[in-house]
Structure formats: C-alpha cells, structure tokens
Amino acid sequence: MSSGGRGSMLAQPLQAPSAGRVAALVGLVVLGAVVGAAGALVQAGWFPGGLLLALAGAAGVFLGGARAVASRSGAVAPAFGWVVAVIFLTASRPEGDFLFGAGGGSYLFLLGGMALAVICATIGLGRQPEAGGARLGK
Question: Is 14 helix (H, G, I), strand (E, B) or coil?
C-alpha cells in the first residue's frame, strides 16, 4: 500500500490534474451532452428500440469514460454533460415548444439515464495502488 516508499497513498498531498486529463474530461463532458441530445431525439422516434438504443449509448459513454480516464471522474464528466443537455432540452420555450412529451418513454429515458449514470460512476474504476498482479499473501 505504499507509493514509492513515501507512505500511504492517502497521505500524499493533492496535486493539480495534468492538462491532458483536464482536456479529456472536458471532451467527455461535451461527448455526454451530444449523447444526451441524440438520445432525446432517438428515444421518441423509434419508441421501444430507440429508448434502448439511447440508454445503451448513454451507458457506453459513461462506462467508456471511466475506463478511458481510469477513474470515476471519467464517468461523472459525461454524466454531467448528459444531465445538462437533457435538462436543457426538457425546458419548454415561451412559444410553448418542447422536445420531450409527457409519455412514459420520456420518463424512462430521463430516470433510466440518471440511474445508469449513478451505476456507472459507482462501478467505475477507483484509485488502485500501484502494485504487481501477485496476491499479497505470497
């Protein structure tokens, strides 16, 4: 559990993330917003299949972001973009236009996407100590 002989990983001082990591997380936020907007259009167009396709795309970008960045922040970043895009598209305009109807598919997309975001952020990769693949007992 040591980090290069400097003590526990939890006892190390916090460091600013690298520029590449920040760029990757910003890109994931934008990708999450694009997937949220595309899913909002697809889920209503082809109801049963479109809903499943939209939720599968959201789960793919959430879990893929976690794997790409190798931390839970990789799942939280696209989830943030997805939620912002979906909430923005949910609001009605002054003319009375709106993208989401009051049907069950829209509610399944909203609640299912939020549940998938929480699930993928929970099972995403957490911080792991830098150690070999051997068992500790040997």
Answer: coil
